[in-house]
Amino acid sequence: MKNWPFKVVSSVDGDPKVEVKYKYNTKEFFPEEILARLIKYLKEIAEIFLHQSVADAVITVPAYYNFSQRQSIIDAAVLADLNILRLIIPSTAAAIAYGIYIVDTAEKNVLVFDFGGGTLNVSEVEILNGVYERKHHKDITLDSGALCRLRTACERAKRRLSYFAQTNIEIDSLFEGIDFYTAITRARFEELSADIFRDIIDCIGKAVVYGTSLFGALLSDHKSEVIEDFLLLDITPISFGIEAAGGTMTPIVKRNATVPTKTSVILTTSIDNQENATIKVYQGESEMAKDNYLLDKFEFCDIPPAPQGAPRIEVIFELDVYDHLVVTAQDKLTDNW
Questions:
Q1: pLDDT exceeding 90 applies to what percent of the chain?
Q2: Is 154 helix (H, G, I), strand (E, B) or coil?
Q3: What is the CATH number of domain 7-104+213-219?
Q4: pLDDT in the model for residue 323
Q5: Fold (CATH) for 117-193
């Protein structure tokens, strides 16, 4: 945090606050308060454009956001006088934008991807291939093996430019016995790639925003032929589970499960005549429970005296489309909740 351009301080309750200095005044804000101001500004822009008030919204959040992070987004929206109809992940929104106009009834598998580093390989090869041709008047595209080696070297160079301002690319006997050497700076790479970045970001940004808007219309009272037959079965991007013996994580609602969902697991006692059991609920993918996010814990009491392993305690997880999780426990032998 020492490299952040702002100062983070602790509130009375130990929660983080951001210190803001403006016109010789210093104030402290919770992150949710700062985000609320941004959301409210966007809300005002939408109201000006639509010539009507905006009360509801669908917001996209990163797939890796846990329950606490998602709740912070909702809290910020409430502060901005917005009612959140649903939180969805960007790839889901992009998929909606793609799928809403598909008229083919055949079942299809569609890949929705983030435009990441690996997909920049082609443009890099074209850039560096241009340098190679100017130097040696050779067409490297005639040799697939040489092209593959150049592509691999370009990928490594691109990764190095994430850490260094300049890097070199050296390949011995790249093509027809000619050694290849060139240098590229981060600034030059960004300049050469600027058009590609702009086109891709614009395309993906529009798809995510458009898909989110369509989903918002689907959840509202708005009627349209475009969305009348559309149904979204969303999934939970992160697993929910409990701490088991040895501190391991036992997933109950597993990642990518369709929501809403209801599932359960049977637990038992670890010692003879055990009267109580502490049930800790976590969210995350780590094998060890302590490495995941602790949502809550509760005590299941009044277990009748019985040998180790005899009681049957059913722990039930109910997760709705809003990511609201309800956990209950029942003794199957006594019906005690």
A1: 16
A2: helix
A3: 3.30.420.40
A4: 80
A5: Actin; Chain A, domain 4 (3.90.640)
